[in-house]
Design a protein that fits this description.
Structural class: mainly alpha
Strand order of the largest sheet: 1-2
Mean pLDDT: 89
Distance between the termini: 77 Å
Shape: globular
Helix content: 55-70%
Number of domains: 1
Strand content: 5-15%
Number of strands: 4
Low-confidence stretches: 265-275
Number of helices: 9
């Protein structure tokens, strides 16, 4: 007999007020934005960036837009385009689920580019700052997936496997928790440590790209492929196809940027050479 951990079966709706339903998944998004703001403010002060509280509110606003619009459009384009072509209005039904990290990431980058130009900030400085806060949303989002009982793992007989309500009678990897740990906690600690070091601007951003690519690519081997897609290329899933370029490009750029002189050292080097 294979022993498994019981799935907690938490009600996805944590509060009902008449016809209004407040869900844990939406709460995780709200928490990630609130916590992200305080992380951004603390790290901006640490680096002595010229950002007021209003500047940080503006930055957060564009990040939220990028996550919500990019995440939704990314899911539509990358994971279920045919269904949304047949029913375009369902694109707006975000309460039914369907968000893509890759689309949200592109949205966050575009939002960062926009506000950096608008406020005449150094893009790479802001990108490094934002990168540290990204894993907060990733980790909390995966916990929301776990509570919803969605995006579960493949069948397994490991002692911590669980039987998910929508996953049939077989025990499965709680892959949402793997991702919450790796893409959330571990990635946050790595990026926070790097941000407090004296690396060239852009290094932390490319570390985010590389390490997310690595963690997501590995976890996909135990995560159940999307039902409407299955496997894309041999044993590889759509998530791995989208993530592999991040791993390769991110690693190459991370190494390139990490080997450069930090801005202050580069300035001193140029000055000494001129003398």
């Amino acid at each position: 007999m294979i022993l498994t951990l019981p799935y907690p079966n938490i009600d996805p709706v944590f509060l009902r007020v008449g016809p209004l339903q407040l869900r844990w998944y939406g709460l995780m998004y709200m928490l990630s934005f609130v916590i992200g703001y305080f992380v951004l403010r603390r790290l901006a002060k640490f680096r002595k960036l010229d950002m007021s509280n209003d500047d940080l509110y503006d930055l957060l606003f564009y990040l939220i837009l990028g996550v919500m619009i990019g995440g939704r459009l990314g899911y539509v384009m990358f994971y279920d385009l045919g269904s949304y072509i047949r029913d375009p209005l369902s694109i707006l039904a975000i309460w039914q689920g369907g968000m893509s990290f890759h689309g949200g990431f592109i949205g966050v980058v575009l939002g960062t580019v926009w506000i950096s130009r608008k406020k005449h900030w150094n893009f790479w400085e802001v990108a490094d700052l934002v990168s540290v806060a990204v894993p907060i949303g990733l980790g909390l989002g995966r916990i929301g997936n776990f509570i919803n009982g969605e995006l579960f793992g493949r069948p397994s007989n490991v002692p911590w496997a669980m039987v998910f309500p929508e996953g049939g009678a077989v025990a499965r990897h709680p892959s949402q928790l793997y991702e919450a740990f790796l893409e959330g906690l571990v990635l946050f600690l790595v990026l926070r440590w790097l941000y407090r070091k004296d690396f060239y601007h852009g290094t932390v951003f490319w570390c985010l790209v590389a390490f997310y690519g690595l963690f997501r690519f590995l976890v996909e081997f135990v995560r159940e492929p999307d039902a409407q897609i299955g496997f894309d290329l041999g044993p590889f899933t759509r998530g791995q196809i989208l993530t592999f370029p991040m791993l390769v490009v991110g690693t190459a750029m991370m190494i390139t940027y990490a080997r450069r002189h930090p801005p202050e050292k580069a300035h001193r080097t140029r000055k000494s050479r001129a003398q």
